[in-house]
Amino acid sequence: MLEFLRREGIDHTILDRITEFRSRYPATDEMRHRVPSPRFHYYGREIWNQALTALLAGENLLLVGPKATGKNVLAENLAAVFDRPAWDISFYLNTDAASLIGTDTFKNGEVQFRRGPITQCALEGGFGVLDEINMAKNESLAVLHATLDFRRIIDVPGYDRILLAPSTRFIATMNYGYAGTRELNEALASRFMVLNMPIIGAEDLQKLLLAQFPNLRREYAGQLSELFQDIRKKCDSSEISTKALDLRGLLSAVSLVQNGLKLGQALEMGMINKSFDPFERQLVQDLITARIRGDLGADELFAQG
Amino acid sequence: MNAVTDFQRRRAVNQIWNAAKDYSFVPDFKAYDGEGNAELYWNFIIGAVRRHYDYPKIAAVFSAFQQYEESDTYEGLLWLGLENAVYQRELPQRPVLKSLREDYARRYLAVYGAPLDDYHLLDCLSAAHYQRILGQEPRMNQYDIKLLDELEFSPEMDTEAVVERAKELFARWFQITAEERRREHHLPLLFLGGHKGKKVKTRYRRFGIGLGDHPAHAYSGEEDLLRREDEPLTHLTAAQLRSFVAFKFGAPMFSEQETADLERRLCTGNHSFCHLHFTKGVPEKGNIQNAFEALKREQEGKQVERNRLYYETHLAENRTSIERLASRIRNSVLLYLEPAYVRSDAGLLDGDRIWRGAVLEDEKVFRRTEQGNMGDLSVDILLDASTSQSGRQERVATQAYIIAQALTQCAIPCRVMSFCSMTGYTILRVFRDYTATKDNNRIFEYVSNGCNRDGLAVRAVHELMRESPYDHKILILLSDVKPHDALRIFSEDSAEYIGYEQEAGVRDTAAEVRRARADGIAVICVFTGDEEDLPNAKLVYNKDFSRIPSVDKLADAVGSLLQEQIRNL
After folding, report:
1. Closest Cα to residue B536, out of B493, B505, B565?
2. How far does A201 lie from chain B, in Å, by closest CA?
3. Which superfamily does B291-328+374-568 belong to?
4. What pLDDT digit, counting tens, does each position of B423-441 carry?
5. Residue A93: closest CA among chain B residues belongs to which residue?
6. Which CATH homologous superfamily contains domain A2-196?
7. Among candidates B18, B347, B375 on the partner chain, residue whose Cβ is nearest the Cβ of A234
8. What does the pLDDT average to over A37-66?
């Protein structure tokens, strides 16, 4: 991971401090399996610089951006860079204190405290990824206020006050304006440093495709990333929903072609069929037809040897 | 040949936008194949022309052709030339175009490839052009070959060069030769409406292997966003009409782009010729145009006063109604909120059951609350503001005020709107928004005006509610269930246009209410009309409506309707 950052052109003083962080807080063997080894790399030097600096300074991060901006990829990458175990905590409408901090349970004939993911993460000094934090109600997130600010504690009623291990960081993600999301209240937002995630540009996407599929012919990587921009443009003008704007789907489609499917069928599964409205599907199909041939197979899409 | 469907039209427009990389204009000319499906390759070219050239200048040339009887031929020829240039410009960025173009050429030649009995300039040149695309040598006389050579514009030419060349070329070739070629008669027109024998140019005429869509304003060079394809006939232009509506009812609350987008999505099917105007009643600057409008405005001002006076006169009973309704709503919400406790192996320790853990090894000695919250509840109130309500405006305003005030007391977000229709526009006026708790007073600004297109109003409010952030949504209509609007709808049964009223209007409204319900919105109606229209209310709202004989019964009636809905959440 550090090698990748160096190639991306991250400032060496930042890299030195990460190395120092890693040697001061080495991952224990029991927790090693929780340290992510990312499949995808996040591209974007500016964002990397900002995120790394904030985390090194002990801040928590809030990643804000629309679909397919790599919020979760970055969060996972960050945990990997710092070599810390990660906890993925998905927020939903009924997320409450018990599901975050923990609750009473009965074991071996006595009542015990069962730790929730936040508590575990805090004790192990891990990286907690609070996914779609704005899906939950602000009121039920109030328990996190003391955890996220300078106090760095979790106070469990009836139990102890848990101090966060010094290497603990929280990275929240949110997709603004998504169905069912709500505005994050000020109290919570003020406990994060907020990063606005930029939309992935055609060039970075091409880079990502080529990194993922080194054999992919450059011209087709270009066309596929242009196709993604075409779809985004249609979403932005609200002609279609963002369902087909699926970066994961695009990457999976290319891998299906590698495994023998024709590109048209693969894109159908990876992108078109993500929408269930026939009209929308037709529009996305038209975008694809106007961009790339559907009968391309592995032999044409990938360079041989 | 069927007419082109809405679906294919939208599709064609989207193909053009994609190629133009610009979504801010309404495309005029569009291409379809023989079955009326959007023709991807040609629509791509049409869009790409917008991207690469200064379109209004090109459109001016097309527009000049329209005065000639042979305009379709000239038009077709110019498109051939543009296609040649634009294709080459786009190819480096979109290699796929090569196969799309060849595919189109093959399809064209399959239909028009064989020598025709009747010499036809455009067909011959097109066939030759497509043969060249496929690497074949066209068999034509030198004369035509030369014309084709000149026509196939090169990609290096800019807009000015293209326009100059086109003007010069058409002047030279057709000034001289057009007369001689008159025997070729004009292209067969495809009649969709059956104007046999008349030389009326229909909107959909042959283009390539399929159809070209020539709406009335094709090639007018206008970039008017508000202009839609099928304007109803009125002496005002689209822009004038819009500003009239804005002046009369208040400034639009959405941007032009957002409104256009909403209209694209909502004004379809039975409402395809309609427009929408959303407003919060913020006055637009401007002068009253005529005495009639001045009088109308004065009357409206008086009506607002009467509304307030009516409420004030019955202040005591109205306040009781508010209190009663509020406590009823509060109770049913509380009742619903009553948390259900379930036994669980984690949660809050249940002292009474702890022995089971020790003795029976039953670990479920905890209680967990479930369904402890029902999520946020919101209520939208929609008032029918058509002229049929004119005799009871004070009562309707007061009823709406009472409901809104009671909901406000219970801290339930509510939005109050009214709707009416005029000159093809359905106007939705927002009096009070969800969080604007101090705006209840504005409900008295309710005045009746014009017609009512209930179906479209429900559809529009449905759309607004979909975008609201609340979990549970209730819509209350105060209506006499008597839809009536001037813009007619097409009846499938009788295959003709019929009025938007009576059975047709009620059926359309019922369909929209059902759609909203299917989307999880609870729709209830406070029936404000007369006895004779009761069956309509039953048809549209099933049992979820209530007739209010007098205002003092309002609290109980609306209370039990709401209670029923909250219970069903």
Report:
1. B505
2. 16
3. von Willebrand factor, type A domain (3.40.50.410)
4. 889 999 999 998 888 889 9
5. B375
6. P-loop containing nucleotide triphosphate hydrolases (3.40.50.300)
7. B18
8. 92
